[in-house]
Structures are given as structure tokens and as C-alpha cells.
Design brief:
Length: 198
């Protein structure tokens, strides 16, 4: 079965159920904001209200959104041992893209600018529960996690000029930079619980 909801700025969906009856089951949940989609009509309205220069035009897009996904699978080998896998992934992104076209009597050009800010997390775990006896409980876990952060900016421009002797000169300029940082981690752990007397 599943359930979902649609809100003003975000929606979410959850599904769960058996894969194999009394043996394997799953659960998955996801959500996303759509502020970036809702902002597009306002960005287009701003573009339509351009200045008085008929020889120039601009195309802009941008916004912010985030999404995340949670998932889990359980499997029962027997009454004494089970396996669990869980995973989380989430990401945020803010971006702005702009394309400007211009022309006059002797020259024309295109100026393109792209920028973004992005960050996110991944967390995964594989866990095995085992009970060799009613007094011993063993829990073995493998984990993985990652965090990353990116800020990037790029600009490219092309200018074409008609000279007085009917020759065409084209100048291309490109500039970009990016900064990326991340932390990645692997770990393993074994826990043993022993109850001498219940």
C-alpha cells in the first residue's frame, strides 16, 4: 500500500509492502519541492517586461529545490537471523541561468551566464541480526556516508563585428570556476549482547 500528498510547495509519496510473503518487505519514501517550477511564470513575466531596446533579448531561468529519498528492505532468513538494508539520499540545489542577445548597426553578440549552489548527503547501512542462542544477540553493521558541496559559476560571450571593409570578426571569451568539497566515510561495527540470566 502507499500514501501521498500534494502541497503548495512540495509533494511526497510513500510505498511499502511485501516482496515475498513473511520473508522480504520494502518501504520507500520520497519528496520534492517545486519552488523552481512555480517561479518560472514570474521569471517569464519579468522577461516580457524588457526595456525599450528592440535589438536585445534575455532568457533567464533559475530557482531552488530539494529532494530526498528514504528506502529500506528487510529479509528474514530464519527466526534467528535477519538482514536489513537502509538508504537515504538528499540534495539541495539553487541555480541561475541567463542568456542575453544584443545587436546594433555593426555588431551582435550572445552572453551566457550559469551559476549554481548544490549540496547533499548519502547515508547507507547494511545490518545483520543473528541470535545463535536465546542468550546471545549479534548485530553486524556496515555503513557508508557522504556529504558534498559545490559552488560553480561560468560565463561565455561571443561578439561578431562587421568592419568597414565587409570583413567579419568574431571574438569568443570563456570564464568559469568551481569549488567542490566532500567528506566520505566507511565504517563497520559488531555488537554482541550476552544475557547470562533472562
Amino acid at each position: 500500500h502507499g500514501e501521498g500528498s500534494i502541497g503548495l510547495i512540495s509533494s511526497k509519496l510513500t510505498l511499502e509492502g511485501p516482496i515475498k510473503k513473511d520473508k522480504t518487505s520494502f518501504l520507500i519514501s520520497a519528496r520534492r519541492t517545486y519552488i523552481d517550477i512555480l517561479a518560472q511564470p514570474f521569471i517569464k513575466m519579468a522577461q516580457n517586461n524588457k526595456g525599450d531596446n528592440p535589438n536585445s533579448s534575455s532568457t533567464n531561468s533559475g530557482g531552488y529545490y530539494f529532494y530526498d529519498v528514504n528506502g529500506k528492505i528487510n529479509h528474514k532468513f530464519s527466526d534467528k537471523d535477519r538482514l536489513y538494508f537502509s538508504h537515504y539520499m538528499g540534495r539541495d540545489r539553487a541555480f541561475l541561468d541567463a542568456i542575453d542577445n544584443y545587436s546594433n548597426d555593426s555588431s551582435s553578440g550572445v552572453d551566457t551566464t550559469k551559476s549554481q549552489l548544490r549540496w547533499g548527503n548519502i547515508i547507507s547501512a547494511l545490518r545483520w541480526n543473528y541470535m545463535p542462542t536465546n542468550k546471545i544477540f549479534i548485530n553486524t553493521t556496515l555503513r557508508y556516508s557522504k556529504y558534498d558541496f559545490l559552488i560553480a559559476f561560468g560565463n561565455s560571450s561571443t561578439q561578431t563585428t562587421n568592419t568597414s571593409n565587409n570583413t567579419i570578426n568574431t571574438v569568443n571569451q570563456n570564464f568559469s570556476y568551481a569549488y567542490l568539497s566532500n567528506i566520505e566515510d566507511w565504517s563497520a561495527k559488531v555488537d554482541i549482547d550476552w544475557m547470562p540470566n533472562p
